[in-house]
Amino acid sequence: MRIDLHCHSDASDGTRPPAEVVARARARNLDVVALTDHDTVAGWDEAANALPDGLTLVPGIELSCMQDGLSMHMLGYLFDPEHPPLAAELARVCDDRVVRAQAMVERLRALGVEVTWGMVRALAHGEAVGRPHIARAMVEAGAVATADEAFTPRWIAQGGRAYVDRYALDPERALRLVRAAGGVCVLAHPRARRRGYVFDDEVIERLAAAGLAGIEADHPDHAPEDRARLHDLAAALGLAATGSSDDHGAPTGDRLGAETTAPEAFERLAEAASGGDLRVPDRSREAR
């Protein structure tokens, strides 16, 4: 089985609609794919309704957290999205995303960048507005040549001139919320050094004690030595070691399936979850 447990659609900062994401996943010979948009489950139904034959969908999310002043991402799987405490937090996070993005647009305009909120909103098809949408709007405005150039201290990198802090969950609270909703959590790309997501063994050990179920060990932004260390750490802590593409569509080169998860690791996660079901193709469509 080929299993990719981390990808995005245009419900957050991916560039492909959920239906196209699952079609591309099957075209890349994936058997299982998790849709993990940032702080939203808005793409689940479209993806499930468009599932091609032979592909299983894992309903998921990538939660925005903050650890010691640094952004941390937590992947949640197979939870009840209507669980009241979790649903309330997701609504708060998404509302703050809008407020923050508007404030960043105003800072950019004060710096002479001809970007507007309308440009950003047009690029953000879903409710989870993020910095990638602002970066793309900056490209459209001619302020930068590529979206990557926006993520510098000159512009919207953390601590940059136009950067604005946002509301984010404490990671241990995120774990409790997802677990209470019947789901399981995997720490996303914990050694993505180029992107600034670097958390040491002690942080991962503490999260494991708080209920973390897995570590995303194999990720396109992880160096070989970091992958090896994360696999060793997962084994020592009794965690599942996953592999995922973290595909965002065009910005990441449509790399679905570039990294995959071992079936036994996926089975461990699925067996530990009780709040949601895997989605499989609707066979009744074939008779219509």
TrEMBL record:
SMART domains: POLIIIAc. Gene3D superfamilies: 1.10.150.650, Metal-dependent hydrolases (3.20.20.140). InterPro entries: PHP_dom, PHP_domain, Pol/His_phosphatase_N, Pol/histidinol_Pase-like. Residues 3-67 form the Polymerase/histidinol phosphatase N-terminal domain. Residues 242-263 are annotated as: Disordered. It comes from the Bacteria. Pfam families: PHP. This is PHP domain-containing protein. It comes from Actinomadura monticuli.
